[in-house]
Amino acid sequence: MTHLVPASAHSYLARSATSLSDAITARDVPTRYACAHVAALCAAAALLAARARPAPRGRRQKNAWVLLSEVAPELSEWASFFASGAAKRAAAEAGSTRAVTEREADDLVRDADRFLAVIEQALGLVPHASVA
User: Fold this and answer.
1) Mean pLDDT, the chain, integer
2) From CA 6, how far away is CA 80, in angstroms rounded?
3) CA 118 to CA 127: how far, in whole Å?
4) Which of 55, 95, 98, 108 has the CA that lies 20 to 30 A from 85?
5) DSSP 3-state assignment of 92?
6) What is the DSSP letter of 96?
7) Which of 81, 84, 101, 83 is nearest to 92 (CA)?
């Protein structure tokens, strides 16, 4: 079965892969964590670009993780997991060297890599070669 994936979804997947690559090559822990989190966010955006429908005007906006849970309930655990790391990402992006540990950053790189593959499969695409 062939799936028609919009160009915007492919664009988000490419951004996700780039951010994941940036996370892998980052020398400092906060950058590694932030880039991995952004990679997951871009992957989520790819699925939303392919499946979500615009909300009626006047409705309150929701963040990507809430929308992902609504559009793809089977990915709710992933959405909750990455949503819980948003504050750490913000602290890391703000330059905090104590926001995350090296282990947390390394784990998030692996999790973002797995999540990207899950999104690719959900879109009917062949998953990328894992970097983990």
Assistant:
1) 92
2) 26
3) 7
4) 55
5) helix
6) -
7) 101
